[in-house]
C-alpha cells in the first residue's frame, strides 16, 4: 500500500509544486493520474518512488518511509518507474546487459538471473530480442524493454509516466495490452496520462490541479465526471459521448457495461 500523508513539495528554487496531498493507493489497484502540463503529476511520481522526498508530510510505501535513507535500496525493490522517453533509459547495446544492469544496481544477487531476464522479456513480448541492440529498436519496442527492465526487478508497484506519448498507434496498443496483463497479475499500477483509452484502463482516476488533488473518482463513475475530463481537453470516445447523451435523456447505462454489442442490445430493449 502507498500512503501519502499531507505531502507538500518544494523544488530548490522555492517553487511549491505539491500542496497537502493526501492519498492512499491499495495493493493491486490501478490508478490513473490526470492533469494539465505543469500541474505536478511527474513530481508526484518522483515523490512516490522516493526519487524526491516530501518537504512536508510523509510517504509510506509498503511500510517504508521514503525519507529513511537506510531503506533506499529496499524502496527501489518496491517501486519501479517507466518514463516517457525510453531512449533516456537505455545504456548498453545489448538488451540483456541493459536489463541486467538495473538488477545489479539493486544488488539483486540472483542466481537465476538469466531466467528472470528471459521471463521479463516474455511478459512484454520481446524475448527474441534478448541479444539485440536496444538502440536499433523502434520507440515502442524500446519502451517495452524499459518495462521489462522494471519487471526484472520484481517490484510490485509500477509507475508509468506518460509512457506512450512518443509511440505510434501500434506501439501504444502493445503497451495497453501489457499494462492490462500486469493489472490481471495483481501489480499496483500508477499511470500518468491524459489519454482516454489509458484512463479507461484504470480503476480510479485522480485529477491534479496546481499541485493539489482536484477530484478523485472511480472509473465506473466517469460519466458523472466528464466535466473534469473536458476541462483538460481530453477527447472522449464516441461511445462515451453516446452514453452521455443517453444520460441527458434519463437513460442511464453504466460504463462497466460498455461493449458495443451490449449497448446495442440495451438500446433495442428501450
Ligand atoms: P506535470 O508532470 O503535471 O507536467 P511536473 O511535476 O513536471 O508537472 O511539474 C510541476 C511544476 O514543477 C511545473 O511548474 C514545473 O515547471 C516545476 N518543476 C518541475 N521540475 C522542476 C525542477 N527540477 N526544478 C524546479 N521546478 C520544477
Number of helices: 10
What's the arrangement of strands in the largest beta sheet? 6-7-8-3-9-10
CATH superfamily of the largest domain: P-loop containing nucleotide triphosphate hydrolases
Compressed to H and E, one letter per element, the order equals EEEHEEHEHHHEHEHEEHHH
Averaged pLDDT, please?
A: 91
Major pleated sheet: 6 strands, mixed
Bound molecules: adenosine-5'-diphosphate
Helicity, as a percent range: 25-40%
Structurally, how many domains make up the residues?
A: 2
**Radius of gyration in whole Å, from Cα?**
20 Å
Number of strands: 10
CATH architecture of the largest domain: 3-Layer(aba) Sandwich
Strand content: 15-25%
- The backbone outline, from C-alpha atoms, is globular
Structural class: alpha/beta
Model description:
Helix 3 packs parallel to helix 5, helix 4 packs across helix 5 and helix 5 runs parallel beside helix 6. The chain is globular and about 60 Å long. It contains 10 helices and 10 strands. The mean pLDDT is 91. It is α/β, with parallel strands linked by helices. It folds into 2 domains: 231 residues, P-loop containing nucleotide triphosphate hydrolases (Rossmann fold), CATH 3.40.50; 34 residues. Helices cover 36% and strands 22% of the residues. The chain starts with a strand and ends with a helix. The longest helix is centred in the middle third of the chain and has 16 residues. The protein has a 6-stranded mixed sheet with strand order 6-7-8-3-9-10, sandwiched between helices. Strands 2-1-4-5 form a 4-stranded antiparallel sheet, covered by helices on one side. The structure holds adenosine-5'-diphosphate (ADP).
Amino acid at each position: 500500500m502507498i500512503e501519502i500523508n499531507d505531502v507538500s513539495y518544494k523544488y530548490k528554487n522555492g517553487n511549491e509544486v505539491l500542496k497537502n496531498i493526501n492519498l492512499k493507493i491499495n495493493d493491486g489497484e490501478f490508478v490513473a493520474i490526470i492533469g494539465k502540463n505543469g500541474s505536478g503529476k511527474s513530481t508526484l511520481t518522483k515523490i512516490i518512488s522516493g526519487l524526491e522526498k516530501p518537504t512536508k508530510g510523509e510517504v509510506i510505501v509498503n511500510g517504508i518511509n521514503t525519507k529513511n535513507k537506510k531503506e533506499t535500496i529496499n524502496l527501489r525493490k518496491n517501486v519501479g518507474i517507466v518514463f516517457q522517453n525510453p531512449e533516456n533509459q537505455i545504456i548498453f547495446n545489448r538488451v540483456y546487459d541493459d536489463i541486467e544492469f538495473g538488477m545489479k544496481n539493486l544488488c539483486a544477487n540472483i542466481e537465476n538471473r538469466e531466467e528472470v531476464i528471459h521471463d521479463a522479456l516474455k511478459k512484454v513480448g520481446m524475448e527474441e530480442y534478448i541479444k539485440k541492440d536496444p538502440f536499433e529498436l523502434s520507440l515502442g519496442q524500446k519502451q517495452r524493454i524499459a518495462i521489462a527492465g522494471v519487471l526484472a526487478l520484481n517490484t510490485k508497484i509500477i509507475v508509468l509516466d506518460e509512457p506512450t506519448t512518443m509511440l505510434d498507434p501500434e506501439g501504444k496498443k502493445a503497451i495497453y495490452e501489457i499494462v492490462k496483463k500486469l493489472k490481471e497479475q495483481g501489480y499496483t499500477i500508477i499511470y500518468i496520462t491524459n489519454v482516454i483509452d489509458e484512463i479507461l484502463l484504470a480503476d480510479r482516476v485522480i485529477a491534479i490541479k496546481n499541485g493539489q488533488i482536484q477530484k478523485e473518482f472511480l472509473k465506473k463513475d466517469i460519466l458523472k465526471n466528464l466535466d473534469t475530463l473536458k476541462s483538460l481537453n481530453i477527447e472522449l470516445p464516441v461511445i462515451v459521448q453516446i452514453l452521455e447523451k443517453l444520460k441527458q435523456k434519463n437513460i442511464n447505462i453504466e460504463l462497466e457495461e460498455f461493449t458495443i454489442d451490449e449497448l446495442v442490445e440495451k438500446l433495442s430493449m428501450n
